[in-house]
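Hi L.,

As promised, Metallophosphoesterase:
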Amino acid sequence: MIELAIRTLLKLKPRFLYARADDVKVKTYRIPLLHNQHARPFRIVHISDLHIGFNYTYEDLIEHINKVNTLRPDIVMITGDLFDRIDRYKGKPQAFSPLLRTIQAPSGVYFSYGNHDQRSSRTHKIQQVIEDSGIHLMNNFGRTIDYDGEAIYISGIDDVLNSKGNVTQALKNRTDSHDFTIMMVHEPDFADYVKRFDVDLQLSGHTHGGQIRLPLLGAPILPALGKKYVRGLYQLMHHHHSMMLHVSPGLGTTHLPIRFFCPPEITVLELTTKEAE
């Protein structure tokens, strides 16, 4: 019955239903966060939750990478769940590496594990795809980049649900806690813990924005550690420190191959200096 209802809806293609790669929306936030008043705006493109292999194909990825590249990002950050189940993927996962290598971002492309990536039987395969793509794997690890004289610390932790993650280890290479710090964490609700560590921006996915959203009611089904912060931009406080959190609605789907009132999204976070605003 459910499959029949889905097929019927797909034929009707109502405006609130999204099931194709070209349904993707681009949303831009302009956020005054950088410290150096001389720095140019820093363009982050944030994507998440492609779930390749579950209603998401090689051709879908081509379309989305082309869209990402037209946005001219300084950096691209992918917060997990690249494949839905790489150990059950019928094709050759390594075929995606040359395609992922075509993402254009002068400050690099970064990836952190999601709960669909980080399992004992899958992690090595995902790691191989990422490394062959020239993408930086941020697994309880961080590094500093220089952007127009602004020291930006890029970090990411292991998936929280399966491997707990290690924020302290991810920040180990940060030489100054005042450096502008970005942390990639697949599960957004973990932000209530991350905000204690002088992190300025957390990027997350995991929720798919709810994927199925009902008018007035919102998302009736949400995953563990994705029930409080569901999609969009949030500001969290810890004592006198403010941390921004962005939760990506994601590009793919899982369990059901459709979205209701929740389009897939590529997000641009344009970070400006506080003085610029």
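The chain has one domain: 2-273.

Thanks again for sending the construct details.

K.
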